Fold:
Amino acid sequence: MRKWHVCLIAIQRWFVLDHDVIPAEKYSLEQMAQEACAELKQAHELLNWVTEPDMVEYAVYTLKAAEKRYDYMIKKIREQEAAAPQNLKPDYRTAVF
Structure:
């Protein structure tokens, strides 16, 4: 029981954000995509870390959700780029992330 408690506390700390919640309209799509990418990396790490069957199942669901979020953000960025006039499209070859 103690191991479960310690594991759950570690997972909660991992996923709880320490900063104030900022409304979505103040984020750019690129910032949200970067967050989704970080979430995806965390989900991969969690899946590599857990060993108990219930936690593996949780990690798989977390990974699938993170993949969906990341795919959605990339789709939205591509839609935004396609809708932007050619001279206003960002040049990602020179952008620094």
The mean pLDDT is 78. Residues 28-85 form one domain.
